[in-house]
Structures are given as C-alpha cells and as structure tokens.
Hints:
By secondary structure, this protein is α/β, with parallel strands linked by helices. Helices cover about 35% and strands about 25% of the residues. The protein has helices at about 20-30, 35-40, 55-70, 95-100, 120-130, 155-160, 205-210, 220-240, 260-270, 280-285, 290-300, and strands spanning about 5-15, 20, 45, 80-85, 110, 140-145, 165-175, 180-185, 195, 215-220, 250-255, 310-315, 320-325. The strands form 4 sheets. It has a 5-stranded mixed β-sheet with strand order 1-7-6-4-5, sandwiched between helices. The chain has a 4-stranded mixed β-sheet with strand order 8-13-12-11, sandwiched between helices. A two-stranded antiparallel ribbon has the order 2-3. About 50% of the residues are buried. Oxa(dethia)-CoA binds near residues 221, 224, 315 and 316.
Amino acid sequence: MQKIHAAITAVGGYVPDYKLTNAELETLVDTTNDWIVTRTGILERRILKGEGKGSSDMAVMAVQNLLAKRGIDPTEIELLICATTTPDMQFPATANVICDKAGLTKAWGYDVNAACSGFIYSLNIGAQFIETGKHGKVIVVGVDKMSSIINYEDRTTAIIFGDGAGAVLLEPNHEGNGIIDAILRTDGSGRVHLHQKAGGSVKPATEETVKNKEHYVYQEGQAVFKFAVTNMAEVAAEIMERNHLTADDVAWLTPHQANKRIINATADRMGLPLDKVMINIERYGNTTNGTLPLCLWEWENRLKKGDNIILAAFGGGFTWGATYVKWAYDAEAR
Ligand code: UT7
C-alpha cells in the first residue's frame, strides 16, 4: 500500500496595507536607501497598524483566505498549529485565539516558537498527524507582528523586519506527493546572538527593563549572517543530495527571506539559477514565521503538480532546516 504523505493542498496569505518604505526609515534612523538595498535587498515592509491588533488578526485573514479558496467550512479543521515569535499574549497560545476568531470550533491548537524556522518546524509537526492517519485536515499558519518587538531607533534591526501571515492546509495524499523529507536542526548556543533580553521567566518585565529597551529584538547581525549563510545553504544542499535531486530536478527553492545575500548564497550552493528561487523580500522584508508561506501564497498559481520544491530556513535559537516537498496540485486548474 502506498504510504500516506502529508500534502499542502491550499495556501492563504495576508499582509497589512501600511508600507514602511526605505525613504520613511531614512527619517527614523541613520540609514540610506542605498545601504539597505545593497546589504539586504529590501525596499519596503508591511506594518500592522491599529490599536489592539495582534498576530492573530493577520493569521485569521490568512486562514480565512485559504478556507475560502477551497470552500472548506472552518469546522472541518481538526488541528491548527501556529508558528509565531510574537504571540498575541504570553498565554494562552495564539492558536487558540485564531481558532476562536476564525470559527474553528472543532479544532485543537497550539503554538510553536522556533523563531524564523518556526514554519518549517510546524509544517513537519503537522505532517506527522496526517501521515499517522490521526487527522485529515491540519492548518499550519506562520505569523509575526515583528513591528511589536522592533526598536525603531535601532538601524540594524528596524530596516529588516516586517509583519505578515501565511497559512497552508495539510491533507493526506496517496499519489506520492507531499512532504517527502526534512532535515531539522537546532543549536541553542547560538541564542546569545539573537534574542529578546527581557519579558521571559529569566528576566520578567520591570520598569527598568522597559527603560533599557530590553523587550526588543537584540541581534548581532554579522554573527547571525555568518551562521545563516553557511547552515541554510548546507542543509538545502544536503536534502537535495540525499534525495538524489540535481539542480535540474528542483523546480523551486522557497527560502526564508532574511537577507537577499543569504538567499543568493543558498541558491548558489544548490546550483540553482535565481529564476527558480521565490524571492519577495524586497516587498515584505523579514516577516519571520511568515516568510515561507507568504512565498508559497504568491507563487501558488505557478506551481505544478509533481514540482520538486525545497523549503529552507534559518533563525534565532539557532534553528534551521530544509524540507523537500513534491507539490500536489495545479492551482490554476482548480
Ligand atoms: O531571520 C533571522 C536571522 N537573521 C538574519 O539572518 C540576519 C542576518 N544578518 C544580516 O542580514 C546582516 O548582518 C545585517 C543586514 C543585519 C547587517 O548587514 P551587514 O552587512 O552584516 O552589516 P554590518 O553589521 O557588518 O555593518 C557594516 C556597517 C557598520 O558600520 P562600520 O562599523 O563599518 O562603520 C554598521 O554600523 O554598516 C553599519 N550599519 C548601517 N549603516 C547604514 C549597520 N546598519 C546600518 C544601516 N544603515 N541600517
């Protein structure tokens, strides 16, 4: 009997309307459009505006977009996994809030926090529930309101991050399409280079921590860059090799959108031309957990059944990984 694969069978996405351009950033911090474009490839990012709006609001839009495309009732969903680094609250999980707001009344859900690799981790976690036959419809959503933890006086991080959400539906596939293989890694010693200093159990929030701006993203850019460029490229190449895929066999690389130079290095290591690489960093910046599903959302109509796609990510933790997906449908034919 053919193995049950977990296949992505629909994609949804959402980005807020407000565009934070390089020109606006020039008025906030000591930077230039030229520096940002040359060093990162980013032209603008989206920012979620509005009192009381959080990650769940963007995630709900992405989930509803996905459900509407397929005409699926929210009560058909059995599990929702939310990958996020900027949950609505420390607890309860943002997944619970999304299920409530989107009417997923028959689902259970939880959050996964693996920084920029959260979506790739969650995709593989969700896949287990499909492959074992436990569930038939699982949603994995990647979302971040990075603007809620960015110090817009810090030029090294303010220029990179943006807000957005993407969601995929996982269903069983009996034709050999879906998630074929994954390599997932973690190295906690890397936490010193990228983290949030206060607000957790080690250093709860106080007046002092707020005054010292310890609730924002702390990143040693160069160190993170060095690890990202090596590890993301290595793992992407490794998954190709162990699945006997040549560059010609790979239809698309879906890379985490942290820096255009990291994306280029990964494509280069895989021997892929850039026209096989999903890149939207210039318009959205780094949306952390949103990057991979937002790429799939934007490219969905160009993907063909049977396409070999490699997803790759690297993020805080350190966390990183690659996943080999055999695409399961032609969106255009639907
Ligand atoms: O997604 C999660 C994982 N995160 C990443 O993968 C991010 C990885 N890191 C990066 O993408 C890059 O390191 C950054 C984009 C953050 C920084 O780029 P860089 O090429 O590594 O710059 P740098 O930190 O080496 O700084 C070079 C120079 C420095 O000036 P001096 O010391 O050479 O005079 C910085 O002070 O550029 C300066 N600089 C800036 N100048 C203008 C740093 N940020 C800016 C800025 N505008 N925004």
